[in-house]
Design goal:
Blueprint: H1 2-5, E1 8-13, H2 21-28, H3 37-40, H4 45-66, E2 75-77, E3 83-85, E4 98-104, E5 107-113, E6 117-124, H5 133-138, H6 146-153, H7 158-179, E7 190-195, E8 198-204, E9 207-208, E10 212-220, E11 223-230, H8 237-240, H9 250-257, E12 265-267
Parallel strand pairs: 1-12
Antiparallel strand pairs: 1-5, 2-3, 4-5, 6-11, 7-8, 8-9, 10-11
EC number: 2.7.8.7
GO molecular function, one term: magnesium ion binding
Organism: Nicotiana tabacum (Common tobacco)
């Protein structure tokens, strides 16, 4: 099924990639010049690696799924920072192809969809060093509904409380990233209901949104990823303007909404470099 080709889930464990300065520059050379400052602005090498791999994933995914040559791929960002593909030739088989990348800890990941909006959030379940779990999560309490907060603080042990906190936080982030909202969105107005983190439902201002699906997936090494899939009509004005189609009849939309989600495919950085480009030889 051609639509399923548009559902991609890739992840890279950057802890396994320790490039020399020369190899790092070589990998960055596959990106357009205007992308370089968004990588070199970081002082720490780990942050530079995350930024570089995030962008390489975007270009490699577009190249593999749509067949666009690397040097013809144009990726822009909305005013809120949401990446999108600028393309004059609509793909009729993947009418609304869009993607979202995320990174935290050791993992950088990307997800794409052919019809629905997609939001992705990766989170490393880091344990607070200088304060208790309860004190750490308390500062975030205003971002959750009363029911969500009750479920978090009554999850069990400190470790279970922290895991539940990260699950709720991650699905909220995936949702707001899907619709293209920037920092500052009122997360407390977004409430999630679930049964052991299956059949996840979202309510915004108390109203259930029926045209959405959510998944929580384990990436390993204490990392998890949340994926949101939803209707283009919920996109912000700036992001909606970048989409090829925002109107679908029920049959078309349900076809996209009910596509299999799939597991993450682990990639290496070398997989993201276009090896067939003339004159490009890896150090």
């Amino acid at each position: 099924m051609e639509l399923e080709k548009g559902v991609q889930r890739w992840a890279v464990d950057i802890s396994e990639w320790n490039p020399s300065p020369h190899h790092f520059s070589f990998a960055m050379s596959f990106l357009p010049q205007h992308e370089h400052p968004s990588i070199t602005r970081f002082f720490k090498m780990e942050d530079r690696k995350r930024a570089l791999v995030s962008r390489l994933l975007q270009y490699a995914l577009v190249h593999q799924v749509l067949g666009i040559p690397y040097n013809e791929i144009v990726i822009r960002r909305t005013a809120e920072g949401k990446p999108y593909l600028e393309c004059d030739k609509p793909n009729l088989e993947l009418p609304n192809f869009n993607f979202n990348a995320s990174h935290h800890g050791d993992f950088v990941a990307i997800a794409s969809e052919p019809i629905c909006l997609v939001g992705l959030d990766v989170v490393a379940q880091t344990i607070p060093e200088k304060e208790s779990v309860e004190d750490f999560i308390e500062s975030f309490s205003s971002y959750f509904s009363g029911l969500e907060w009750f479920n978090i603080i009554n999850a069990g042990s400190s470790h279970q409380i922290l895991s539940e906190f990260y699950r709720y936080w991650s699905v909220k982030e995936a949702f707001v990233k899907a619709i293209g909202v920037g920092v500052g969105y009122k997360l407390d107005t977004v409430e999630f209901l679930h049964k052991n983190w299956a059949n996840i439902v979202v309510k915004v201002d108390g109203k259930e949104l029926k045209d959405w699906r959510f998944w929580l997936l384990e990436l390993g090494k204490g990392h998890m990823a949340s994926i949101a899939r939803g209707h283009p009509m919920f996109a912000t004005t700036s992001y909606r303007g970048t989409l090829k189609r925002t109107q679908f009849n029920d049959e078309e939309y349900n076809m996209g909404l009910n596509l299999p989600n799939g597991s993450f495919i682990l990639r290496k950085v070398e997989d993201l470099l276009h090896s067939n480009e003339a004159g490009r030889v890896s150090p």
